[in-house]
Each structure stands twice: as structure tokens, then as C-alpha cells.
Amino acid sequence: xxxxxxxxxxxxxxxxxIGRPQGIFVHLVDAGAVRGRVIDLGCGTGENALYASAHGxxxxxxxxxxxxxxxxxxxxxxxxAAVDFRVADVLELNGYGGTFDAAIDSGMFHTLRETDRPxxxxxxxxxxxxxxxxxxxxxxxxxxxxWGPRRVTQAxxxxxxxxxxxxxxxxxxxxxxxxxxxxxxxxxxxxxxxx
Length: 195
Hints:
single chain; alpha/beta; Rossmann fold; seven-stranded mixed beta sheet
């Protein structure tokens, strides 16, 4: 999977890289829901992480694709932002035990294979402090068609996070893309707390 995302970033801006933070996360940061030390899971070229940093949060962004991280670091340097961008696998965050107060995931969860979802839940749980928050924006089953990533149901979110988590809410949201035919995509915003 890492090589396919690397190839996508090397080929140019992918449709999820909209050149600004996703509105979902702008709202969460502005509302103060995302606090403390934050990890951006599957950060891509870093727009959400950079936005959070510009609003006073201590942020680290991780992505499997070295090219995405290279671009994110270049943006951080250009903007004078102190975001720590690293090539890392969100399924293996063992080295970050209890480091973060919050995690954000903008369109990464819906790329995971069903068998990897429990690993993701466990990995992120381990990286968060007790009571840490996880915010996931993913395509919902209400988005028509079969293009792009797999759609996710609320039941799948509940099932993935049944152990060690409280699912605080799952709300209908909008995920922006650069695709003319699907610039606004039906999504879920899941808010969870680590127990």
C-alpha cells in the first residue's frame, strides 16, 4: 500500500490533497475540540497539521509516503511552522506510547483493509494518553458510486472501536476533493475517546 500512495504523490496532487485543510478539521480546531499534543494520521502533504500548528497546537504528522512527507516538510519550512513530519506506519505507532492528547485522521481510515482496522485501533490507542481523543473523517456509505475508497458504515466504526474506546458521536459531514464531479463527498465524522 505504501508504494501505491508514494506513486500517487510522485504523479502530482491526488484528489484528496485540496491545498488547504479539510473544513471538518478547521471546525474542530477552531472549536477547541482538538487540544494538546496532536498526531495527524496519514497527514499527506500536511495541510491539517499545519492548520492545527498555526492555532497553537503541538503537532506531529505521519504518513507512509516519503514524497508526501517531503512536501509537508517543505510547506512547514516555507510557512515557518514547527510541525514534526515523519514517515511512519499508523498501524505501528509502538514508539509513541501515551504521547498524544489527540489524533486526527482525514481520509486515512477508509483506505484500510478490514483486517487492518483492529490493528489501527490498537496502534492509535497506544499512542494516545488515557482520555485522548480521536477524530476520523471518512467516506460514508451514503456517497454514491464505486469510485475512490471503500465506503464505511457507522456499524463498522462501532465494531472497530469496541475495545478500549468510547464512540462519542458519529455525525454526517462533508469531505472535500479536487474532483469536479465529486467535489463534496458524503462522509462521517467520528469522535472517539480512548479508555
